[in-house]
UniProtKB/TrEMBL annotation:
It is a multi-pass membrane protein. Residues 80-294 form the ABC transmembrane type-1 domain. This is Glycerol-3-phosphate ABC transporter permease. InterPro entries: ABC_transporter_permease (IPR051393), MetI-like (IPR000515), MetI-like_sf (IPR035906). The chain crosses the membrane at residues 21-47, 84-105, 117-137, 167-191, 227-246, 279-298. Keywords: Cell membrane, Membrane, Transmembrane, Transmembrane helix, Transport. It is found in: Cell membrane.
Length: 303
């Protein structure tokens, strides 16, 4: 090691010693992060190369067999399709409804603060509680949805929302949209209030009506917020689990089995920890792609 290298090393060590109290405060968080995040990720990656059943004493090394099983797993492919369906339906719908509510509550109307609070409440309601309530609302025998649909003669017999293969996923999507609208509303409200009024005044002077101002002023200025909500919504919807677990348990006929729920079944129903870890890393890579896409879209939006 050269003299310059030794000097730089001593300088770093001296700085660390001088700031030792700061490292002491950081130590508990770093230890927890290392044990429960870094070590867990590394150990999960190690499990992908083994047939690791928690009920079996032997955990043989299987190489890339788990990855080959994943590629040929038809149920896993079905879970990807279900997740894509859920994402493609819930994310755009939640953003559109959130934008509509934000535009409404950005107007000088009475009780606007109370309405904003009411619309945001579903977002802070625990998913478990919300899913149980919505499962009751969807009940085929005494659910409120069937009650009012029958009263208004929109249907002639009760619908089995969560047991019908064609209605189960739309029912879950509707519940998820209800829960996410508040977050989209808050983000869009913040963006709307940051748009300079001069732009709207200039548009009015040019003869632009309300629709033209929305199309040519509001929506372009909301583009960064829209990109943020879209990417965060995609990442969140790829990890959907709670409402599936409580409302449908992946049924009927695996029509609502999403990727995370399929990983849960592999790990805690069939105890195949090695295969579940492989599926989890596949999900991680998909989310990594969307995160990279998010950064790229942000850079383009800032240019």
């Amino acid at each position: 090691m050269t003299g310059r290298g030794r000097g730089a090393r001593r300088g770093v060590l001296k700085t660390m010693w001088r700031e030792r109290s700061a490292y002491g405060f950081l130590a508990p968080g770093l230890i927890l992060f290392s044990v429960f995040t870094v070590f867990a990720l590394l150990f999960a990656f190690y499990l992908t190369f083994r047939e690791w059943n928690i009920l079996e004493p032997e955990k043989p090394f299987v190489g890339l067999q788990n990855y080959r099983d994943m590629v040929g797993d038809e149920d896993f492919r079905r879970s990807i399709i279900n997740t894509a369906y859920f994402t493609g339906a819930s994310v755009p719908l939640g953003m559109v409804v959130g934008l509509g509510v934000a535009l409404l509550l950005n107007q000088p109307i009475r009780g606007r603060g109370l309405l904003r609070t009411l619309y945001f409440l579903p977002n802070v309601t625990p998913f478990v509680v919300a899913a149980i309530v919505w499962k009751w609302l969807y009940n085929g025998d005494f659910g409120l949805f069937n009650y009012y649909l029958l009263k208004t003669h929109l249907i002639t017999e009760p619908l089995v929302w969560l047991s019908d293969k064609n209605l189960a996923m739309p029912a879950v999507v509707l519940m998820s949209v209800w829960s996410s609208v508040g977050f989209s509303m808050v983000v869009y409200l913040a963006a709307l209030q940051s748009i300079p009024n001069d732009l709207y005044e200039a548009a009015r002077i040019d003869g632009a009506g309300a629709w033209a101002r929305l199309r040519h002023v509001t929506l372009p200025m909301l583009r960064p917020s829209t990109l943020f909500l879209m990417v965060m919504g995609i990442i969140g919807s790829f990890q959907v689990f709670t409402q599936i677990y409580i409302m449908t348990s992946g049924g009927p006929l695996n029509r609502t089995t999403t990727m995370v729920y399929y990983i849960y079944e592999a790990a805690f129903k069939f105890y195949e920890m090695g295969y579940a870890s492989t599926l989890a890393y596949a999900l991680f890579l998909m989310l990594l792609v969307f995160t990279a896409l998010q950064l790229r879209l942000y850079r383009r939006a800032d240019m």
